[in-house]
Design a protein that fits this description.
Radius of gyration: 21 Å
Helix content: 55-70%
Number of domains: 1
Strand content: under 5%
Structural class: mainly alpha
Mean pLDDT: 88
Shape: globular
Number of helices: 16
Largest sheet: none
Low-confidence stretches: 1-6, 8-40
């Protein structure tokens, strides 16, 4: 990894010394390629093992295909129910989480009770408070402005279903890409995002872990400006959730090029979570790695060791207050200066 240049120039400000990545050049090479010594598909390289490996690698694209088929042809009573996306998202997460038990990628990422409890807390937080805040503070005002200005995208309603889904995916991902990239380029935004990079292992629900401010910012989009059927939106949300879940999961699956060229995989995203701060500044797309390829921020590789600040794991409380650490440190310094003056 150390021989390859970072995807972007270093950000302005002494960010690393405060919140992440101030590691010495003596750190070991943390790049990673899928293990050969531990043949997870069984001893030997027979046709049976090769077939099993192929089937395992096809699990992510097969999951996406099933999701598309469900939302395109499922019972209307299910598709039209506003709770259907919640159920579908939960079932997708449970499925990928279960795969970690049978198709473990790294033993060091094995889920324990503490990690599971933290991950579950953030999944619930994202689907309740963060979702509510995003709807009330962003989507509803945007919809109101759209109606008051007479903006319409009736053409989007005439598109074939699969193109409607693709449109939603692109609109969501393009916005998230730039928000994510800004978070790595500008210190105030990095302070909100850094807690997500302090996770020391990747698991199926880890995509939801982070400071609430970041979770709100990354949820913002202009999708409310488009007129689209609910089924297409829910299908896209379900696909994005599934791809992101696989991209964070401790699952031994390396999808074929027709999938990994377009969608983010655990290989792409684990590299983004590398220990060295500069090595995190690539592969920004949460689910649509194609955007990184087009905009020049894609980087090949993988990392088995993830984290920031000497891989310090943060508690939920520490994750919540992390963006305010510089302010807290400044106040404490001022208080420390005031005490001798008073004496």
């Amino acid at each position: 990894m150390d021989e390859q240049p970072a995807c972007n120039a270093a950000p302005s400000g002494d960010m690393q010394s405060i919140v992440g990545g101030g590691h010495s050049s003596g750190n070991p090479d943390l790049s990673y390629s899928p293990p050969n010594a531990r043949n997870a598909y069984g001893a030997g390289d027979g046709d049976g093992n090769a077939l099993k490996k192929t089937l395992v690698n096809l699990v992510p694209p097969a999951t996406v295909a099933v999701i598309v088929l469900f939302w395109a042809f499922g019972p209307r009573s299910w598709i039209d129910n506003p709770w259907s996306i919640v159920v579908a998202g939960a079932l997708t997460t449970i499925f990928v989480q279960a795969l970690e038990w049978f198709l473990e990628r790294h033993e060091g990422w094995r889920l324990d009770r503490r990690e599971f409890a933290t991950d579950l807390f953030y999944v619930i937080l994202s689907n309740t408070a963060i979702s509510w805040a995003s709807s009330k503070l962003a989507e509803d005002p945007l919809k109101a402005a759209k109606h008051s200005l007479g903006i319409t995208t009736e053409w989007a309603m005439q598109l074939p279903f699969i193109l409607q889904v693709a449109l939603v995916i692109f609109v969501m991902e393009f916005g998230q890409y730039w928000m994510h990239r800004i978070m790595h380029d500008w210190r105030p935004f990095w302070l909100t995002h850094a807690p997500h990079h302090h996770i020391t292992q990747l698991n199926a629900m880890k995509g939801a872990v982070g400071n609430p401010i970041e979770l709100f910012l990354i949820s913002l989009s202009v999708l409310a400006l488009f007129d689209l059927p609910q089924a297409a939106e829910f299908c896209a949300f379900n696909i994005l959730g599934a791809v992101s879940t696989f991209a964070h999961a401790n699952v031994r699956s390396d999808p074929p090029p027709f999938y990994s060229f377009v969608f983010t995989t655990i290989r792409h995203h684990s590299l983004h979570h590398s220990v060295k701060y500069e090595d995190t500044r690539c592969n920004y797309a949460n689910s649509l790695i194609l955007i990184d390829r087009v905009l020049g921020t894609y980087r090949e590789g993988e990392s088995a060791i993830v984290g920031q600040d000497e891989r310090k794991r943060l508690s939920i409380w520490e994750q919540f207050i992390f963006p305010f650490q510089p302010t807290i440190a400044w106040i404490k310094a001022k208080q420390g200066e005031a005490v001798p003056a008073a004496n």
